[in-house]
Specification:
The chain has 332 residues and is an alpha/beta fold. It contains ten helices and nine strands. Strands 1, 2, 3, 4, 5, 6, 7, 8 and 9 form a nine-stranded mixed β-sheet that branches. α1 links the parallel β1 and β2. α6 runs parallel beside α7. It starts with 5 loop residues before the first strand and ends in a 17-residue tail after the last helix.
Length: 332
């Protein structure tokens, strides 16, 4: 196998996703460009860790699966940092525990790293709706609510400010330069669905390495399961509010100029176009048109409310996050 070795990190926290976890690992094992290893990081759930360790105790050479306990505080960011610290590959890729990767996922990542300036590569995440189809009212512009690639992102292999964490890869040296994922900002199991930890990391990386190139290649595709509870407007609203809170934390860390750079284009170009499409579809009596237009407006207002509340809390000395250093794993 030519090119850099790739370690794939999958973070898990609940046995409720047992079949999803197995499917995620199987999709990594089936890659046309084999991974060096798969690291399953379990977030403070010893029962799940023991069960996974038993499941993969006989993993063969060439499809090695290592099961680890999250060595940091509870949450996705610390789990990812545990995986980074243990990874042996030059490239560290991340896959959600309820997603499966297409066969050429890692091949497309590896090709991009032929350019030594490239420090991160993300891919395209496609929703798999539990009901079998997208709800009529759910706008594609808000697919980030369910952890997927949203309408308005550039197509092809293009430079971006930040990659999206559930389908992403980084050079190992990126973490040496910028540190790991910030704890206190990302998801923590079933608690309020905060996010933006990958955005904050990518901005921090670009500051530490101004020459760094960050890419999205939409040929690197994964399919992400969307449970039924996330198909409802209540979750949509909760997630949008949490995004506003998270953006306030990021802006506090890196400044509003950089922290909201991409969001300004999204809010002033992508979303108005989405509202116009929804209203046009409503006039043409197409299903869900008015609902999509209304959901976009509601999502913007809810996220803005979360941002205002988060900014006020930040000024009053509210929640903060910590950027840990990530120790280099011993290479064989």
């Amino acid at each position: 196998m030519s090119g850099p070795g790739i370690s794939v990190v999958i973070c898990a926290y609940t046995e409720d996703r047992w079949e999803d976890i197995l499917a995620a690992v199987s999709s990594v094992r089936a890659q046309s460009r084999p991974a060096l290893e798969t690291l399953l990081v379990v977030d403070h759930n010893e029962t799940l860790r023991e069960r996974l360790a038993k499941e993969y105790k006989d993993s063969s050479e060439g499809s090695v699966v290592r099961v680890l306990a999250n060595a940091g505080p509870r949450g996705l960011s610390a789990g990812r940092n545990t995986g980074i610290a243990a990874a042996r590959g030059e490239i560290v890729a991340f896959l959600d525990d309820d997603a499966v990767a297409e066969r050429d996922w890692l091949r497309h990542f590896a090709e991009a790293y032929a350019d030594e300036r490239v420090m991160a590569v993300g891919g395209r995440t496609v929703p798999v709706w539990a009901s079998g189809r997208r709800p009529d009212w759910f706008p594609e512009e808000f697919d980030w609510v369910v952890g997927c690639t949203y309408r308005g992102l550039p197509r092809g292999r293009v430079r971006v400010r930040n990659v999206l964490g559930g389908n992403a890869s980084f050079r190992r040296s990126a973490f040496d330069a910028a540190g790991g994922f910030a704890t206190g900002i990302g998801r923590d199991g079933d608690k309020r669905p905060l996010g933006c930890e990958e955005t904050e990391l990518c901005i921090r990386l670009s500051r530490a390495r101004p020459e760094a190139v960050l890419l999205i290649d939409d040929r690197a595709v994964i399919h992400h399961r969307v449970p039924e509870i996330r198909e409802h407007f209540r979750y949509f609203r909760t997630r949008a509010y949490a995004e506003g809170l998270s953006k306030a934390l990021v802006a506090r860390s890196v400044g509003a100029g950089k922290g909201l750079e991409s969001e300004r284009r999204y809010a002033t170009r992508v979303l108005p176009a989405g509202v116009a499409r929804g209203l046009r579809d409503a006039l043409l009596a197409r299903p869900g048109g008015a609902g999509r237009a209304g959901a976009i407006v509601a999502g913007v207002l809810t996220a803005a409310g979360g941002y205002v509340v988060g900014s006020v809390r930040a000024r009053r000395g509210g929640p903060t996050f910590r950027v840990p250093a990530v120790e280099v794993a011993a290479r064989e």
